Amino acid sequence: MAIVPTTSVFAEDSKTTDQSQTTNKSQSVDKNQTPTSEEKKVVEYTKNETAKTEKKKEPVVVEEDNSKKEAISNKEKVEEVPKNGWQKENGEWLFYENNQPIKNWKKIAGVWYFFDQNGIMASNRIVNDYAFHTSGAMVENSWVKIADKWYYATDSGKIVRNRWERVGNVWYYFNQDGVMASNTLVDDYLLNSSGAMAQNDWEKIADKWYYATDSGKIVRNKWEKINGIWYYFNSDGVMASNQWKDAYYLKNSGAMAEKEWIFDKSYNSWFYLKSGGAYASREWIDAYYLKSGGYMAKNEWIFDPNYNAWYYLKEDGSYVTGAFNIENKSYFFQGDGKWIQSPKYFKVKPITAYIYSESGDILSYVNQGSIVTYDSSKSKGSRLAVSISGLSGYMNQNDLTLVDEESEFIPHYTTDGRFLYHELSPYTSIRVAPHTSAMKIGKKYYSNDGEHFDGFTIKNRFLFKNLTEPTNYSADELNRVYSMMNIRNSRLAGKGAIFKEAEKRYGVNALYLMAHSALESAWGRSQIANDKNNFFGIAAYDTSPYDSAKKFDDVDKGILGAAKWIRENYIDRGRDHLGNKATGMNVRYASDPYWGEKIASIMMNINSRLGGKD
Fold first, then answer.
1. Are 523 and 487 within 8 A, CB to CB?
2. Using only C-alpha atoms, what is the Rg of the chain?
3. Angle between the 510-521 and 595-610 helix axes, to the nearest 10 degrees?
4. Are 511 and 551 in contact, with CB atoms under 8 Å apart?
5. Residue 300: what pLDDT?
6. Three-class secondary structure of residue 499 per DSSP
7. By C-alpha distance, which of 606, 498, 586, 580 is closest to 537?
8. Considering only Cβ atoms within 10 Å of each terminal Cβ, which end of the chain, N or C, has fewer?
9. Structural class in CATH, domain 1-52+78-160
10. Cα dihedral sign for 554, 559, 561, 565?
């Protein structure tokens, strides 16, 4: 018979506290929960029903034996009490009634419990398909985790087996043992790590990605557009990645590549995926060519029938421009990559570029966009033999880009029956000489020096006129020029006397000075002219014309100062005529190869309007 102590049977381990916790199961909520209110009623029952020990004192008995009195000390005797209610024995819970442990089912304080044949309460296990919490309470309409596996019991207390169950508007599947399936596939339905059936969501299983639609079923053997991005799933429903599907490429993320370059190690080649995802084939993407099959061309020649042209693609895949050495032979390519078998013209690329002699001395320089004629019969190292505006020499290949004669404007000469014009661009032409019978109207003429043509020769007298010779025009006549030419708001208007004074003082032709100032300052109206009284472009370098331009105190000093500067720096040094890039002022004064020709044309026009005295 057990001895019941005076303290509560729950002092050691309260039956209704410290129980395992469970929660209603949902897709993203922890399944542990605190004991239910029904389970807590056990405490009250226990407190009311469990017998408590009572200490009773027996009376003291005194016997007299003629000779002495024997004192009997008080002794406590613990009375054995019948067992009732909850008892914890050897770490297990039992429930007694009339000193006997309950076996089988028992509803206690509204909660069902089960006790085995030894009276031990079932806890955190399943008995005959019924699930029990750690507290021993039968699970009803709730989740329970047993041996690290999740189960769900309906209102009957029995667990769900081998079927689908909808819990809190979420579908779950339970196997034949009643264990909730998770992170797996069941009949093409995708279950996530919480066990919930996935809908319009991704799940990674065994390092493979799957996607379930709103039906819960995975996508198999087809393309699926998810959040605006295309993905492909194979026959097993696995997302494809780092691989091709027909003409489309699936990246590491699984997303279909689109409008981007992809390098495929298995093919050791670059591919370009266009808008829509298909690879580019037999077409250009910027400076790159994609061959049949989508492979990027490199280190090879490509003939494009669409352009009827050959191209050479470098190691990086871009087409070659300019001069390029292939197997120890020089080839020339236009700016758009087309190979020119017999090149004739090149265009200057930098702001200014030098022309060198055969020995390497600088002969002159030309500005950006200038067209030079190529002489294929000779070269000097990396320099090409060229000619422009009367000058022949050599230029660095890196400063030049090949010109397509069919698509780009090449400067030339034409006649209208009255004058020969130099057509410098589609929008600019200058008069250079009177028409002669040797010229044909409508024919294009080409000349490297502006003098010698096919079938005739001209001499532009103002281009080679000695500028130390004075003009035959007076100051008043020069003043008439601005109104005759309809030039308004010019700061040079009315300065004929100053031009004549400069001519007298420094020995520089006044008509030339007027024409020079007209070209450089837009007839005295440019910003440099207005801000700095600089009408001749003195020190207005190509790279920083405004900032570097020399400043004069006023208009008169701008004219006189320029005449003095020109005399000292050009005329006194043997450059006494405008000339071209081979001779005269144009060699050094301006990078524009036709600078001298333009001023000579203005002089010719003024002379014609004033009566032709010069």
1. yes
2. 53
3. 120
4. no
5. 98
6. helix
7. 586
8. N
9. mainly beta
10. positive
Asked whether the beta carbons of 296 and 263 are under 8 A apart, the reply is no
At 5 the pLDDT is 35
For the segment 442-484, what is each residue's pLDDT rounded down to a tens digit?
999 999 888 999 999 998 899 999 999 999 999 999 999 999 9
- How far does Cα 118 stand from its chain's mean position? 74
The total number of residues shown for the chain amounts to: 614
> What residues contact 481, with CB distance under 8 A and at least 6 apart?
487, 514, 606, 609, 610
The percent helix, strand, coil of the chain (3-state, each to 5) is 15, 35, 50
CA distance 130 to 375: 101
For 249-306, what is each residue's pLDDT tens digit?
Answer: 999 999 999 999 999 999 999 999 999 999 999 999 999 999 999 999 999 999 999 9
- DSSP state at residue 291: -
From residue 274, give the alpha-carbon distance in Å to each of 261, 281, 283.
9, 10, 11
Instruction: Work out the number of other CB atoms within 10 angstroms of the CB of residue 198.
Output: 22
Contact at 8 Å (CB) between 332 and 343? yes
3-state secondary structure of 602: helix
Alpha-carbon distance 392 to 382, whole Å?
A: 16
Gap between the Cα atoms of 358 and 350, Å rounded? 21
Q: What is the mean pLDDT of the chain?
A: 88
Residue range(s) in the chain whose domain bears CATH number 2.10.270.10: 1-52+78-160, 184-240
Residue for token pair 């405008």: 578
Reduce the DSSP state of residue 558 to 3 states and report it. Answer: helix
pLDDT of residue 330: 84
pLDDT at 54 over 90: no
pLDDT at 39: 38
Domain with CATH 1.10.530.10 in the chain: 475-610
Mean pLDDT of 562-591: 96
Determine contact, residues 498/491, Cβ cutoff 8 Å. no
Which superfamily does 184-240 belong to?
A: Cholin Binding (2.10.270.10)
Crossing angle for the helix pair 496-506 and 555-569, nearest 10 degrees? 30
The structure tokens 């034949």 sit at: 176
